[in-house]
Amino acid sequence: MATKTTGYTESTEKISDNVYRAKESTNKGKSGKESLKKIFEELLQDTYNAEKQLTKALPELAKAVDNDELQEAYENHLKETEKQVQRLEKIFDRLKIQKEGKPCKAMEGLIKESQEIIKEHEHGASKDAALIIASQKVEHYEIAAYGSLVELADVLGLDNVADVLERTLEEEKNADELLSDIAQDVNDEAYGQASEVEQYANGIS
Ligand SMILES: [Fe+2]
Ligand SMILES: [Fe+2]
């Protein structure tokens, strides 16, 4: 009898536990979807603001560098960035979301770093090397933003939007890889231009 009672109690507990979990997950599903939607919209606005800041910053970078390949990379990425802004605008229109949110402070800071390098370094390979590092920080920020946007769009069932954002994500990854390639030549050049004393010191450290 005791065993039967225990068995009955256990199974009842299991059932009620399952019902509770089912209810909990339904509630979570609703509120979770709402808050994910909000996170997605705010991230879209943040990224839109970041891209718009970049359309102003990229021409300054192209002007400041010495290496031709790097200059071309900045000019081409400016054209891509303008398209990325348009893609985001289409997404805002389609989802009926306001374009303007808070300014992207992270991008403001990253762009300021580049502007400081432009002011403080002499024209040449070392300046180019420093600007590539600053620009790769920007690309990594964008990769994180678009990677998250693609994931969120997927979860929210916005398949077409996810595809559009994925295209931009690939462009950001390619831009980052191209900067890594160019950095190899630019860093060699900067090292070659360093004085013998600097090279010796670098060799020791
Ligand atoms: Fe971008
Ligand atoms: Fe970018």
List the helices and strands and how they pair.
Elements (H helix, E strand, L loop, with lengths): L1 H63 L3 H28 L9 H16 L4 H31 L3 H35 L2 H9 L1
Bound molecules: fe (ii) ion (2 copies).
* CATH architect. name: Up-down Bundle
Question: What does the main sheet amount to?
Answer: none
Report the portion of residues in β strands: under 5%
Overall pLDDT confidence: 86
Order of helices and strands: HHHHHH
Give the CATH H-level superfamily.
Answer: Ferritin, core subunit, four-helix bundle
Q: Which fold name fills CATH's third level, the topology?
A: Ferritin
Q: Count the helices. How many?
A: 6
Shape: elongated
Q: What is the number of E strands?
A: 0
Keywords:
205 residues; mainly alpha; Ferritin; disordered N terminus; binds fe (ii) ion
Any overview of this molecule?
The protein has 205 residues and is mainly alpha-helical. It has a single domain (36-204), classed as Ferritin (Up-down Bundle). Helix content is 89%, strand content 0%. The protein is built from six helices and no strands. The protein has helices at 2-64, 68-95, 105-120, 125-155, 159-193, 196-204. Helix 1 (2-64) packs parallel to helix 3 (105-120), helix 1 (2-64) packs antiparallel against helix 4 and helix 4 packs antiparallel against helix 5. The longest helix is centred in the first third of the chain and has 63 residues, at 2-64. It starts with a helix and ends with a helix. Mean pLDDT is 86; it is low at 1-27. Bound molecules: fe (ii) ion (2 copies). Residues 51, 54, 81, 84, 142, 172 line the site of one fe (ii) ion (FE2).
